[in-house]
Design a protein that fits this description.
single chain, alpha/beta, 11 helices, globular
């Protein structure tokens, strides 16, 4: 029998009211005239597995997962993609027709596609990348940069042992830099990435010295509130190529939307405007 139910998807977090994903997916559903709904769901950690077992019966074809569930969901899933395993977290869930729950991570994909769109001239092999931070976002960034062939990735984190752990996991192309030396390590970097929350509205500023940034260096900040952080403002003043963090949020949503609703959406100015 053909399933004629309207496909449902959503985002699960705790809390989740801040998520812009419903605006994004709602824009694409409307733009392409597709049947479907995308719903924010605030689900506490102790209710997560029950929700995952129930949602497919209610017509859900998949969900996005955000903090604090991105690690826990991998224990619940029947199938976990290689990239989610490598990153240690999942953000995109597919409820398959055979009843299995498939967990994937599209953050690295979103990061790379945002770079390619925002800095079309960026060549991964052009030189080292400098990554600030060693949390979950950094793991996705590092995995994706290694995959596209960046020759060396320098990681600097306020807590050095977290950066050392990433070097142990990701291998010989990783070099750990002391936080107080992070500014100096940008001098010859082809790419600089802030994967920390420093500079976000309500957080401390990123205090790393930025005078070593060279003209033409690609600089991107995963923070998108504000859209232009201090890092990006200073980088722009020093003639760097700047890529804001909003595009990563949009691009990481593309594979899930395509899988759930059957249409690969375009990332364009109208998409950005819809969620700003």
């Amino acid at each position: 029998m053909t399933d004629t139910r309207i496909p449902l998807a959503g985002v699960i977090g705790h809390p989740v009211a801040h998520s812009r994903s419903p605006l994004l997916h709602g824009h694409w559903l409307k733009t392409y005239g597709l049947q479907g709904h995308y719903i924010p769901m605030d689900i506490a950690p102790d209710k997560l597995e029950t929700a995952f077992r129930t949602l497919p019966d209610l017509g859900f074809v998949g969900v996005n997962v955000t903090i604090p569930h991105k690690e826990k969901v991998m224990e619940i899933a029947d199938l976990v993609s290689d990239r989610a395993t490598l990153i240690g977290a999942a953000n995109t869930i597919i409820f398959r027709k055979d009843g299995k729950i498939h967990a994937d991570n599209t953050d690295g994909y979103g990061f790379i596609e945002n770079l390619r769109q925002g800095a079309p001239g960026w060549d991964p092999k052009a030189g080292p990348a400098m990554v600030l931070g060693a949390g979950g976002a950094a793991r996705a960034v590092i995995a994706s940069l290694l995959e596209v062939g960046v020759p060396e990735i320098r990681i600097s984190n306020r807590t050095r042992n977290r950066a050392e752990q990433l070097r142990e996991e990701f291998g010989a192309r990783i070099r750990v830099v002391e936080w107080v030396q992070a500014g100096n390590a940008m001098d010859d970097a082809a790419l600089v990435v802030n994967s920390t929350s420093l500079g976000m509205v309500g957080k401390q500023e990123l205090r790393v010295p930025l005078d070593g940034l060279q003209p033409g260096t690609v600089v991107t900040d995963l923070v998108y509130t504000p859209l232009e952080t201090r890092l990006l403002r200073v980088a722009r003043e020093q003639d760097c190529t700047c890529v804001d963090g909003l595009g990563m949020l949009i691009h990481q949503a593309v594979p899930g939307f395509e899988r759930w609703f059957g249409k690969r959406p375009e990332v364009d100015d109208a998409t950005r405007a819809a969620i700003l």
